[in-house]
Specification:
The structure holds 2 protein chains of 2 kinds. Chain A is built from 2 helices and 10 strands, in the order ββββββββββαα. Chain A is α+β, with helices and mostly antiparallel strands. Chain B has a 5-stranded mixed sheet, sandwiched between helices. Classes of the chains: A alpha+beta, B alpha/beta.
């Protein structure tokens, strides 16, 4: 088959994944893109969404990322995510509970900054929920 | 000469101290491993971030539309020092060394007629700086209740700094922390945060396509870089703190051992002297008869 592209997924706290894959789909700020080996050099910011690794050495994997940016070279893709969670670790029941909590937080928020923060959390959680 | 009872008390109390320092040392050792792992795990992100910014900034530096975080405000009047120390003591000269560097910086800047503001991260730094430079301290951030410093903590500090920068409170920001070299040595370091220092890039590397455009990416990356740098400083600090604590507490335990040996020897000697004295009294009393 085709050449594989090296893929690193890094969060500020640790290196989450370092693998090789046939294609990695990333949620670019201006649309999703599939990155394969030989892609032209590119730097893009990310919007919250799902990174899908297909044909990887460890099979297919999916990660939910909250913002960040990606750097593409012909042989290598590096994603620097603000926060990344493997989709497999998300589960509907816990998320629903967290969404409920977040909604309560939003309702209870007093100041504007608190409200904005609660809204942000809620949006992230809903985004995660939608990927399941 | 001290009485036997006083000596016994002394031995007991030093033994108590030894127990505490020993326990502190072991706690520090186990936390140290985790802190070091965290610091190492965070490195790839900071490195990548640095590379990407260097790549972008190379082309933007002379551009008039470049973000202020990169080029600075054009002034050099007010400096913000972010002094990162630990929240807890019992770690030898760790905090003092950081504060000493910060004080040197402050004095040098004031001699040049600049205004200095201080943002303390960590309680110990505030305690030490408050005495001399109290009025300069804008605020203090503490992580006393935080078990493990996460990126979110650093981001909170970063946002504060950025908000102040946007309001034009300061022109340049520097973070002072201790770079972790080994358990024995942590080197107090000052790193400039704003404007972002850009090393000369080796151009001729890849020519990137940008999506969205360069300026927007840079505007997104630079604030993030501030948080990342602060995070990096905090992690190095935590590793350094526990390293220093291990060494300091190890030293303290050894000292306690030494003191116990000395006092025990003195105690035995005194006791023997007393017995001898009593015997002499009895014998000479018997001979006198």
């Amino acid at each position: 088959m085709t050449d594989k592209i090296a893929f690193d997924l890094v969060s500020p706290e640790r290196l989450l994944l370092s693998t090789e894959a046939e294609m990695v789909t990333i949620p670019g700020s201006e649309g999703d893109m599939g990155v394969m080996a030989g892609h032209m050099p590119l730097i893009s910011t990310l919007r919250p969404g799902v990174i899908a690794v297909s044909g990887g050495t460890e099979g297919d994997q999916r990660f939910y990322v909250i913002g960040g940016f990606a750097e593409v070279n012909p042989g290598k893709l590096t994603v620097l995510a603000d926060e990344a969670v493997p989709v497999a670790e998300l589960d509907a029941a816990t998320l629903d509970q967290r969404i409920k909590n977040a909604e309560e937080d939003l309702a209870l928020a007093k100041t504007d900054s608190e409200r904005a923060k609660a809204q942000e959390t809620l949006d992230h959680l809903k985004g995660m929920r939608a990927t399941l | 000469m001290a009485s036997l009872k006083a000596l016994r008390n002394r031995i007991a109390s030093v033994k108590g101290i030894r127990k505490i320092t020993k326990a502190q040392q072991m706690v520090a050792a186990s936390k140290f491993r985790r802190a070091l792992d965290a610091a190492i795990a965070a490195r790839p992100y900071a490195e990548k971030m640095g590379e990407a910014i260097a790549n972008l900034a190379g082309g933007m530096k002379d551009n008039p539309g470049a973000p202020k975080l990169l080029t600075g405000t054009g002034k050099d009047d007010t400096h913000l020092l972010i002094v990162a120390t630990s929240d807890r003591g019992l770690c030898g000269g760790f905090n003092t060394n950081i504060v000493r560097l910060a004080k040197q910086k402050i004095e040098a800047l004031r001699r040049d007629g600049k205004k200095v503001l201080i943002l303390c991260v960590g309680r110990k730094g505030r305690d030490q700086l408050r005495r001399v430079h109290g009025p300069l301290i804008v605020d203090t951030v503490e992580f006393t209740g935080v078990k493990r410093i996460g990126f979110a903590n650093a981001q909170a500090v970063g946002k504060r700094v950025l908000a102040m920068f946007d309001e034009g409170v300061f022109d340049k920001a520097t973070v002072v922390y201790a770079r972790f070299k080994s358990v024995m040595s942590q080197i107090p370091t000052a790193t400039q945060l704003i404007p972002a220092p850009v090393e000369e890039t080796k151009t001729g590397g890849a020519f990137y396509e940008y999506e969205p455009d360069e300026r927007e990416i840079l505007a997104d990356l630079l604030p993030r870089n501030v948080s990342v740098q602060i995070f990096h400083a905090l992690l190095e600090n935590v590793a350094g703190e526990f390293g220093a604590k291990m060494t300091a507490m190890d030293g303290a335990t050894r000292n306690a051992d030494e003191v116990i040996d000395k006092v025990t020897l003195l105690y035995n000697r005194t006791r023997q002297a007393q017995i001898t004295k009593e015997l002499i009294e009895i014998i000479s009393g018997a001979e006198a008869l």
